[in-house]
TrEMBL record:
Its cofactor is Zn(2+). This is Alcohol dehydrogenase. The keyword Cell membrane does not apply. Keywords: Metal-binding, Oxidoreductase, Zinc. Transmembrane segments: none annotated. GO terms for molecular function: alcohol dehydrogenase (NAD+) activity; zinc ion binding. Belongs to the zinc-containing alcohol dehydrogenase family. PROSITE patterns: ADH_ZINC.
Length: 346
């Protein structure tokens, strides 16, 4: 048996329950979960807006763990410490074969459809998507590499092609926004952080943002245009709401690139967008979700070569029983940094 945190009722505290340990997939592994982040995507399910998440779901999709069982067709072996992307691609369909596994139509999604890592153990099929935990990196930090950091990396490099010296605007400096800020700075970009929480803006400045804009105070787009001498080259929207999406588009200079990282679901799935700005300025709009697993080496090599420290990303280590409280915190402005579950026994 294992300890789990189960969604039994939308917007209610998660239920801490004993459940059977998962069976091992033929093409995958069972991991003992060493750390699991609590993400805004989990919150979308917790409030009932994610179409795939129903009562009875065990959430948790950004995790790091140690292999305790391996199937006959598994890539990895017992004892391996691994990082998991939240999208597990099949590896054989046309999308996967073309290098775009994050769009795989046969993808598996622990934490969204199948039992996730708000538990002591998680089953991981298609384990060819996993990657070894780099030596010297803690599981707590590595947990974020399965969702927030990988998503930000692919948004900046695989979609927007951010260049050194360009201005990068980040709208919403939660987990993925802070990841974009840290990576963008390491890539040589000049970063403007946007949020409505002064403490988060101050934290962004301490992590290398060149400027911070409080979105409650006048036109965000106009202030970014002024700060950057004509507008950002790349702008990342990291919340998934209409106001920040339009601010992200409108703060761009001609030929700028907007990247939609925030997840528009439920009441935000359809938005009124300033398409005139897109048309008049010749803007490019990119959607992005996750990262193809084959890009892990590029990210890990960049982290090693640039000496990036992602420790400031994690500001709260919590127990499994505190997961529901962290999800509820997403109902309002959140404090700086992200929470990671590191204690699965209390």
């Amino acid at each position: 048996m294992m300890r789990t945190a189960v969604l039994r009722e939308f917007r209610a505290d998660l239920s801490i329950e004993q459940m059977p340990e998962p069976a091992c997939p033929d093409d995958g592994v069972v991991l003992k979960v060493l750390a699991c982040g609590v993400c805004r995507s989990d919150w979308h399910g917790w409030v009932g807006e994610h179409p795939r998440i129903k009562p009875g779901q065990i959430g948790g999709h950004e995790y790091c763990g140690e292999v305790v069982a391996a199937g006959p067709r598994a890539t990895y072996s017992v004892g391996d410490r691994l990082i998991a992307p939240f999208i597990l691609a099949c590896g054989s369909c046309p999308a996967c074969q073309s290098g775009n596994g994050n769009t795989c139509p046969d993808q598996r999604l622990p934490g969204f459809v199948e039992p996730g890592a708000f538990a002591e153990y998680v089953a991981v099929p298609f384990d060819h998507n996993l990657t070894p935990l780099p030596e010297g990196m803690s599981p707590t930090i590595a947990a974020g590499l399965g969702c927030r950091v990988t998503t930000a990396w692919h948004a900046l490099t695989g979609r927007a092609a951010l260049q050194p010296g360009e201005w990068l605007a980040v709208h919403g400096v939660g987990g993925v926004g802070l990841s974009a800020l840290i990576l963008g700075r390491a890539m040589g970009a000049r970063v403007v952080a946007v949020d409505i929480v002064p403490e988060k803006l101050g934290y962004a400045l301490s992590l290398g943002a060149e400027a911070a804009v409080d979105a409650r105070e006048g036109s965000t787009a106009a202030r970014i245009t002024d700060l950057t001498g004509g507008g950002a080259h790349v702008s990342v929207e990291a919340l998934g709401i209409q106001e920040t999406t339009n601010a992200s588009i409108e703060c761009l200079r001609p030929l700028g690139r907007h990247v939609q990282v925030g997840m528009p679901l439920g009441h935000t799935a359809h938005m009124e967008i300033n398409m005139n700005a897109v048309y008049m300025r010749n803007l490019a709009l990119f959607g992005t979700r996750g990262m193809p697993s084959w890009r892990y080496p590029s990210l890990l090599s960049f982290i090693e070569a640039s000496g990036i420290d992602f420790a400031p990303l994690v500001t709260r280590e919590i127990a499994l029983s505190e997961t529901g409280r962290e999800l509820a915190a997403f109902n309002g402005p959140t404090p700086p940094g992200v929470a990671v579950i590191t204690d699965f026994l209390t």
